Amino acid sequence: MYSNNSYGESHLRRICINVRQQLLTSNVIATKAIQMGIQEDKVIELLDIFMNEWIEHYNKNSKELKNLTGWILFDSVKRRFLMIQVSK
User: Fold this and answer.
1) Pick from 24, 26, 19: nearest CA to 72
2) pLDDT tens, 21-39?
3) pTM for the structure as a whole
């Protein structure tokens, strides 16, 4: 019933848009960006990069259920963003 092709690009695009909005309004992301002195446009760029990398990995390796995709992406990108270190 479920195959690797069951997750259409439009489904992932809708999830990415929703996750991106949630991440951009997340207090923890905003706090990290302020601490790091990262401007909003750079935050958006980083989140998009992290999401694209995650989706590429997901498309190659994952068989997760469709309804968990958004939560997995949200958590993965949030954790990756919070791991950014200040370069001196």
Assistant:
1) 19
2) 999 999 999 999 999 999 9
3) 0.64
